[in-house]
Amino acid sequence: MAVKTLYLGPRLKKLRRELGLTQANMASDLDISASYIALMERNQRPVTAEMLLKLATTYRIDVADLADGDADETAARLQSVLRDPLFADIAIEPLDIEDIATSYPGMAEAILRLHTAFGEEQLVLAERRDLSEEQGSGAVASDPVGEARAFLAARRNCFPELDDSAAALARKLDSFAAMQDHLFEQHQLELRLTDDGLLRGALRWHDYHRRRIHISERIDQAGRRFQAALQIAIIEQEQPIARIVSESRLGSDDGKRLVRRALQSYWAAALLMPYRAFAKAAADMRHDVEALCSRFAVSFEQAAHRLTTLQRPGEEGVPFFFLRVDRAGNVSKRLDGAGFPFARHGGGCPLWNVHTVFDQPNTVDAQLIELPDGERYVSIARTVRGGGGAFGVPRVVRSVAIACSASHMDKLAYGETLAAAEPTPIGVACRLCHRPRCIARSAPPMGREIVPVRYRESGVPFDFSME
Fold this sequence. Notes:
Keywords: DNA-binding, Transcription, Transcription regulation. Belongs to the short-chain fatty acyl-CoA assimilation regulator (ScfR) family. InterPro entries: Cro/C1-type_HTH, HTH_RamB, IrrE_HExxH, Lambda_DNA-bd_dom_sf, ScfR_C, TransReg_Diox_bact_type. The protein has helices spanning 9-18, 23-30, 34-41, 49-59, 63-67, 71-81, 94-103, 105-135, 144-154, 160-170, 176-187, 196-199, 221-236, 238-246, 253-272, 275-284, 289-296, 300-307, 353-356, 415-419, and strands at residues 5-6, 47-48, 190-194, 204-207, 212-216, 321-325, 331-336, 365-370, 376-387, 395-405, 424-425. By secondary structure, the protein is an alpha+beta fold. Among the domains are: 5-69, 434 Repressor (Amino-terminal Domain) (Orthogonal Bundle); 75-135, no CATH class; 143-272, Orthogonal Bundle (Arc Repressor Mutant, subunit A). The strands form 3 sheets. It has a 6-stranded mixed sheet. The protein is globular, with a radius of gyration of 27 Å. It starts with a strand and ends in a 42-residue tail after the last strand.
């Protein structure tokens, strides 16, 4: 029977350095030559099964940790990156990717970081180009919101490190009471529900001097749990989040602050909806958002938002786009995990159900939409409420929509209803939409000549020539 061999050079070198050993020290411990250690670290000699056993017994380490490490996840991340059209003309075999991930983890990580930085820079440049066109040639204004959105989009709004740390605590912190106990035991902080008289309209307040965390009693149970989870994220995840932000290409302090807040919220959501449990439930329930709300005791917006984050390499879910708008069409949250080509700075087409659900509040609506290029998407929308909680307290009603390619319709609970439905033709924005005879049009498309109405009234706001 052949003896299995592995090339584990970088990991062997990392282990040696973590133990504070020179090559000569390790060679003496293992009763081999220092030159052989050097050859193994350069992947010029394999680490045999016998050598693995000797390493494990000498240094009291788990063989599986040394042999496997994070190679599978790194390989999955590399495969995801190398599917980018940028590399379409390069033939890279899966075995080559696995070999790089296993034998050269440092090089693999360098490739992953470069690709992330490339994607982020592309999105930032696109945002700046749009702003320049809107404000006049040469004008490039600071846009921290655009920066933050580009940062999240470049990473497909997925942060496995934060998912893993949240999942490690999720079983223990499965209720508001458990979070209260955790904050007191670990940080000597008292978590309590408080009336608005003390909070003065705030949802949460950390009273640093009295070592108390106050959460408004006016928010619902899902909101209370999220605020408690968010407070734990702020206290316990400062370093991991700071590290992620420091590796970004964010140019403004405001952009960094917005990203830091987004990552804190990401961790809080991951605590309430652990990645693997939520991804499995989403697939089993065919992405029925209301059913997911009931399973995880979260709000519609929280569950919809979480669906956009299921893009962990090797464990990807359906890619969703997320949008939240008010009645005036102002966008207050946008997350793109599906390549949805909607205008960055507008609320989109008024025929889209993210706008029409205001006519049927608190009711989920599913719509099959078709863009001018023929691409079809499924859009799931519902109104959500912010504020309120007592008589006379200001509140705002917004609409939330998630959308994915119609190619995923068989994975959706809404698919059977929509399979036989005629798609609603919508446009990215009126200036870019060339659909004729649209009664919802607010502006003529660019490059089209308005037709005179002296002898004929068409009944549409802007009748234009199709020539």
